[in-house]
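Example (one chain per record):
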Amino acid sequence: MAFPTHRMRRLRRNSALRSLVRETTLDVDDFIMPLFVCEGSRIRREIAAMPRNFHLSPDLAAEECREIRDLGIPAVILFGIPEKKDATGSSALDPNGVIQQAIRKIKAVAPDLLIITDVCLCEYTSHGHCGILKEQEVDNDRTLEILTAMSVSHAEAGADLLAPSDMMDGRIGAIRRGLDDAGFSHLAIMAYAAKYASGFYGPFREAADSAPSFGDRSSYQMDPPNAREALREIELDLQEGADIVMVKPALAYLDVICRARDRFDAPIAAYNVSGEFSMVKAAAQSGWIDEKRVALEILTSIKRAGADMILTYFAKDAARWLS
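Predicted structure:
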């Protein structure tokens, strides 16, 4: 029997009923806040394409992390912006590099905050690609050696979790072996397992000064029309030793998150990327949408699709909205 016996509106009559039967709940514990760390001291420079996000020197990144911790956000992910770049991204391995400094300073003021570090060379190379070049191509296997050394350097500085975002074949296995051999078998890896060659990264590339100087990243990041391939990427990363797998971007790839959730029992992260964030900000600034309502709706959709954790530039705002 259907209507009038069944009336779906009965459980929508007021906020208490809606809350009681709500299937998906968004919580501050779901969020990871990305931070951009630059060299220097007392630097806090707003990123034009990403309102209320900043380039922060390690000392001010530590202060920011104290506030993030106090809001109840459990984790940050750090992206480094070095002063010097070269063809091999050598500054990524410097024990006193920008990320290594930031890790130590953050741990000194917020030891209980989980520090995740981005492991990729695009922010460190003069050409902006995610690995070592051989003529006009990224040399996959040579790049693995640098990524492994970078991961160990971050671990030695005190990182809690390594997040390789480069999309080189075999890098999870290489990094896992490198960490284990260096005495860091206890550290987990969050693999950017299904990272697409997306148009939604534009604001991030401005923030990280990481746009490729030639070509694009389509030869190593995933082709946007492909979903079955994403499941194979995720499966391979889990086989190589990933502890958490990520889908990036999130909003345009909710179907991929959902497929991954249905197939794998591993924790799934999703990255609500810069373009998704900046679209909402721009529309809200023009008065076209309600920023809070739309941002929380997007974040809820990502969790509803199956993500266990969400990397989002809305983390601080969302933590306040949900409190």
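Caption: The first strand starts at residue 31 and ends at 38.
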